[in-house]
Request: fold
Amino acid sequence: MKQLADQLPDVLGPVRDFYVSALLEALATELDGGADVDPEPVDRDVDGRVRRRTPLNLPMRHDLRVRRAGRTALRGVPGVSGLRFAPVSGPITETVAARIAPFSWGAVEIVTRCAVSAPNWTPLRLWFLEWFQARYGEESPDLLGVAHRVEGPAPTQGGWRFTVDLGSASAPCFMAMLDAFGRAGCAEIRIGETETAL
Reply:
């Protein structure tokens, strides 16, 4: 069976570009309006300490921090639905398979079924912390090339549900995420139309 990694390059690039274009457009609109804008700031409390989200104790980023007329506000990209494409599926490894249906890069809906009753989410935490670090790139010189947020795991029937904001991270971030889910003990990964069985 054809490896999923061989099917995804033509899918991931356009999905990412569609979302990142919306993020860059929001950034340009705020700048054109005379605001000072920090792209993809880390979420911090009033004392400047990094806030961490349960249950995985991870930091998060916002899309934009906008300063205008002495006021500061956090702005998100308006809801960006994913591009439509034919779902792709296949093995990631000998023990892990995935189905990828249309999804939004900024709100990746994921449902996993695990081969173990108590998954070890450490590989997922390490994946996120690596891609949380700023990595300016040629693809988006005005952005940081980072993932923004992981919400979950929330138990669901027979598995776990996550929502992941991949921010301005590149397509290899997505592939590394799939690998991290596999190393955490997930045997099946559904992305996008998460009610559809593999």
Q: What stands out?
A: The longest strand covers residues 149-156. Residues 135 and 141 are 10 Å apart (CA to CA). The mean pLDDT is 90.
